[in-house]
Amino acid sequence: MLQLTDADVAALLEKVDVVGTVREVFLAHAAGRTVLPEESCLRWTNDEGESCRSLNMPGLVEIDGRRIAGTKIINASLGNPDRGLARAGGLILLFDLTTARPVCALDAAHISAGRTAAVSVLATELLWAAPARTVAVVGAGALAEAHLNLALRRWSSVRRVRIHDRVPERAARLAERLGDTYRTVAFDVAADAEQAVREAELIIPVTTTTSGYIAADWIAEGAVAVNVSLDDLTPDALAAADQVVVDDWSLVAADTTRILGRMHRAGDVLPPPRHRTPDAPDAPDHRGSPDGPRKRPAVEVTAELCDLVGGTTAGRTSATDRIVVNPFGMSLHDVAVAGRIYQEFLK
Ligand SMILES: NC(=O)c1ccc[n+]([C@@H]2O[C@H](COP(=O)([O-])OP(=O)(O)OC[C@H]3O[C@@H](n4cnc5c(N)ncnc54)[C@H](O)[C@@H]3O)[C@@H](O)[C@H]2O)c1
Q1: Strands (DSSP E) along 108-215, which ranges?
Q2: Same domain for 216 and 243
Q3: Residues 159 and 267 reside in one and the same domain
Q4: CA distance 179 to 265
C-alpha cells in the first residue's frame, strides 16, 4: 500500500482544485452518485483528564465518471496544542474498487483542513449579499489558518480580518503570520468574541467549544455565519437566522452531540424541504399530541448545500438576510480530494 506523508500531501494538494472538487462532490451527491454512511465516533478521557476522540468517516463518490471509495480516520486530543502537537491528526485510506483492499494511506491533516475551508468558501460565495470586506474568525488554530489562507487568496474584497482566541497569543501569532503575507488586509486581534463578530459580514467560528456563545444580536444584517466548529452559535442565534443551510441533513440529524442535532431531537428543527414528511412530528402542519398542537420548530433548515450548488434552491432572498451555514463535515469531500491527490501522484 502506498503511503503519502504530510509533506507529500501538502505538495500534491497544490495541484488540486479543492473548491472545484468539493463542488463536484455536492453535484454527485445531489444526483445520487454517492454512498454516505453515518460516521462513528469513539470518545474517551485520557489519564490527564483531556477529551480525546476518534472519528471514522467512510464514503464513496463518483466524479469524472469513476468511483472513489475510502475512509477518513481523524483523531484529536484537546491537550495536544500544549504538547506542541496539532490538536487533530489522522489518515485517509483509499480503497481499490474491485478487491476492496486499501491501496493508499494519506496523512489527513491538510486534506481535512483544506476541504473544510473549501466547503465554507463555496457556501459563502453562494450565499453572501456581496463579496465580504470584513471577516471575523473565532479560534486561531489550524482551521482558522486554512480558512483565511484560502479566502484571502480568492477574495480581493477583504479589507479587515478580526481574530479572537481565548489564548490571545494564538490570535496574535496568526494575525502576524497572515499580515506578512496579505499586506492589503488589516488584521485586528479582538479582546473578545463579541468584538470580533459584531459588524462582520462573514463570521467563521473554528474553536473547540461545546457551549454556544455567539448571541443572535451579535450577527449583523446581511451576514453569513459558517458554523464550522458546530457548537458556537446559541440556540437563539440559530432561531433568529433567516436561513439555516446544512451540508447533509442525514448527518446532522443522526448526530447526538452538536447543537443542531440536539435541537432536532427535541423537535426544535424543521428539516430541509426534501426531508419533510407531512406526518413527521417536526412538520409545520403536524397536529401534535392529544394534549394539543405541537409548537412550530424554532429553527427551519432551508436547504442543503447540494441544492444550492445544483441551483435547485434559490439561496439568499434579501440583502439583509442573516444566513447560518452548518457544515457537519462529509467524508465524501475528504475521499474525493484524496482520490485526486492519488491520481496526481500516479501521473
Ligand atoms: N465542520 C467540519 O467539517 C470540521 C472539519 C474539521 C474541523 N472542524 C472543527 O473545527 C474546530 C477547529 O479545529 P482546529 O483544528 O483549528 O483546532 P485547534 O485546536 O487547532 O484550534 C482551535 C482554537 O480555538 C481556540 N478556542 C477554543 N475554544 C474557544 C473559545 N470558546 N473562544 C475562543 N477561542 C477558542 C483554541 O485556543 C485554539 O487556538 C474543531 O472544533 C474541529 O472539530 C470542523
Answers
A1: 134-138, 160-164, 186-189, 202-205
A2: yes
A3: yes
A4: 43
How much distance in Å is there from the Cα of 140 to the middle of ligand 1? Answer: 8
Asked whether 81 lines ligand 1 (CB < 6 A), one says yes
Say yes or no: CB of residue 329 within 6 Å of ligand 1: yes
Cβ atoms 197, 136 nearer than 8 A: yes
- Are 101 and 205 in the same domain? no
> Which residue's CA lies nearest to atom 3 of ligand 1?
329
- When divided into structural domains, the chain yields a total of 2
List pLDDT tens digits, range 136-184.
999 999 999 999 999 999 999 999 999 999 999 999 999 999 999 999 9
> Which three cell numbers mark 91?
489518515
Domain span at residue 155? 120-330
pLDDT at 287: 43
Any idea what the Cα angle at residue 67 is, between residues 64 and 71, rounded to 5°? 125
Residue 76 corresponds to which amino acid?
Answer: A
Mean pLDDT, the chain, integer: 94
Determine the distance separating the centroid of ligand 1 and the alpha carbon of 302, expressed in angstroms. Answer: 26
Q: Please tell me whether residues 159 and 244 are part of one structural domain.
A: yes
Least confident span in 236-250, 268-282, 319-333: 268-282
Domain of residue 315, CATH code: 3.40.50.720
126 Cα to the center of ligand 1, angstroms: 24
> Which atom of ligand 1 is found nearest the CA of 81?
19
Q: Are 67 and 60 in contact (CB under 8 A)?
A: yes
Q: How far apart are CA 250 and CA 230, in angstroms?
A: 15
- Pocket test of ligand 1: the residue of 74, 115, 143 to mutate, having most ligand atoms within 8 Å of its CB, is 143
| Same-domain status, 129 and 270 | yes
Both 207 and 66 in a single domain? Answer: no
CATH number of the domain encompassing residue 338: 3.30.1780.10
Q: Which of 115, 229, 230, 231 to mutate to test the pocket of ligand 1 (most atoms within 8 A of CB)?
A: 229
Evaluate if residue 283 carries a pLDDT over 90. Answer: no
How confident is residue 296, by pLDDT bands cut at 50, 70 and 90?
confident
Query: Quick one: 47 and 142 in the same domain?
Result: no
Q: Kindly report the pTM of this predicted structure.
A: 0.95
